[in-house]
Every structure is written in structure tokens, then in C-alpha cells.
Amino acid sequence: MKHYGLIGFPLSHSFSKKYFTEKFTKENITDAEYDLYPIEHIKDLQDLLDAHPDLCGLNVTVPHKINVIKYLDWVEHDARNAGAVNCIRIHKESPVLAAFSGEVGVGGHDFRLEGFNTDLYGFEMSLRPLLNGRYYEALILGDGGAAKAVKCVLENLEINYKIVTRSPHADNLLFKDLKPHHVAQRKLIINTTPLGTAPKIDECPPIPYAAITGDHILYDLVYNPEKTLFLQKGEERGAVIKNGYEMLLLQAEKSWEIWTSQEKHP
Question: Which terminal CB of the chain, N or C, has fewer other CB atoms within 10 Å?
Fold first, then answer.
């Protein structure tokens, strides 16, 4: 039996477990299981791997997407640029071959931990159809871990962006200083904050919504509820809106593709 799972803390609910359990049933995959592995400290990853030698792949969620990188033997280019990993492939290899190749894992183990960021794929593939070949400038609301994949994708797409935060940092705009002309100029607005997530559905990022028009795209990484107050306000002004559910589906399928690929990276 091949085992896969999710690490993070806390793991009170999980899209991934439900998704992969249903996927395995629907596709008659009988040799795979997906479980939750709540670990509070990322240093406990090695103990988890030792306790579960049948693990073939892991998803990574908060708070470990950044700190897990130093425990990996190899990190894919875009994931390194984003500075975050949400998918680990555990590549088993012979200790003898590993010794000869000089590729013993960083922890001295007989497997390689390879890091990817499938959020990049999920976000890009769900965003592209909305752009419809037009050029946009963007506002990214929030600058936490979820914003890392968004920034990397926008850079790859050569979309200029400005980050909006509550606290001063670098050249970020502050929410309190955001004016209607900022919103009017940048017609792609992406919410990476948790504001509006159930059960606090009456919250939304504090931006001048009156400046939103039918030329805007509002994308919310939140997917529960299906239509956040942020998206509702955009829809009322005629904007194209989208939540993060398709992104979740796409990143999950990309993880499965990575785990079941036999390619070994240098």
C-alpha cells in the first residue's frame, strides 16, 4: 500500500484528505491511502518519515510551507523562487546507489525529498482563462505565505503588481492609504488574505470597492464560502469574479501527477 498525506498544524479540516479519498474510490485506486499528519514543528518531519516508511508523497500546509525547504534534498526552480513548498515527493533509492552517486539525502536517509509548489500551477491555470489575452496590472491583497505563489505566477506572466498590507513593509501600499485611483489603475485584484473565510463571512479586505468596474477581475484564494463578501462586492460592480476552488483542484491533481511520476531530478 502506498501512503500519501498532509502535514501542517493544526489540521482540523482538510480539503486534501476528502479530495484524494474520493479520487481513489472513483478511479478504483486500491493501493493508495491519504491521511493527515499534524506536526506542530517541522523538525519532527524526520520522525514522521521514520514512523511511516511507506510514505510516497506529502502535501504541506501552514505553517510549514517555508521552513520545510531546508529539510529537502532538491527543490524545483519555481518553488525555490516562490520561497515555499506545498508538495513533497519521497523518492526511494538504494542506499548503495545513493552512496555511489553522492546523493544521500540531507538527513542521511536512503530516500530523497523533492520539493514542488503546485499552488503555482493551480493559480496560473485557473487565472489564465480570465485574462483572455489582455494585459492587466494587479493588486495583491496581503503578503503572507499564500501570496508567494501568486507573486511568482504574476512575475512569470510579466504582470506588474503592487502589494497591499496592513503593516509597512518594503514598498508595499498600506490598506489605509489605498485610494480609488489605485484600484482604477490595477484591474486585477487578488485576495490572498483569509478575510471572509467561513464562519467570518461578513469580513472583507478594506479597499475602495466603488472604484471597481466591469473591466476588473477579482480573484479570491478563499473558497469557503463559494462567494465571499469581497467577491460579492466585485460582482455588484460588474467585475469578473472567481474563488480559489478550481486552484485547489488543479494543485491537488498536479501533486498526484508529481507523486506518480518516476522521473528523478538531479
Answer: C
